[in-house]
Amino acid sequence: xDWRNDYEALLAHExxxxxxxxxxxxxxxxxxxxxxxxxxARIALVSATIPGSxxxxxxxxxxxxxxxxxxxxxxxxxxxxxxxxxADQLTDRDLSPETAETVAADYHEALRQSAYAPVRELRxxxxxxxxxxxxxxxxxxxxxADENAPLDPVRNLVTEVGGECxxxxxxxxxxLLECRRDAIAWLSQES
Length: 191
Prior knowledge:
Blueprint: H1 3-13, E1 19-24, H2 28-35, E2 40-46, H3 56-60, H4 64-81, H5 83-88, H6 97-110, H7 116-126, E3 137-143, H8 151-161, E4 164-168, H9 172-188
Parallel strand pairs: 1-2, 2-3, 3-4
């Protein structure tokens, strides 16, 4: 994954010496790649997928044209049915109209140009990767009812690298809604 090089180039361009990174959902592999940089002080993962963790979409990524079709169908359905359809894929909670609109806008943006980018991301997540996080603090918040990102691979990673995992009685998006302030506060603390 070239993300680490892109991340380091961005930090250099912006004259940022070190940074903290938060990865939610499919942002987990990107946050982990950034965490391998010596310019990353801390990483927080919230309901994150871990490379090699499996899951239905990751399995489907082995047949890219089917996964692209799945995303196209989902985007069409979401456009015609409203933002609640997208949000319902991520949580059972009742969301404010503003939150549902934000979730749907994020989904539509991911698919705006085509379904190739999300498929490529899922295919890279399907591969098992190791991450040297020896110099980076890791903290994870993950829902016990998360059906989008399996919890066991996350716990294994936390054990492997010596991080901290907080389990929350919530689903995928529910975990983010409950823990976002804690994650940002932890990232903002002085090391």
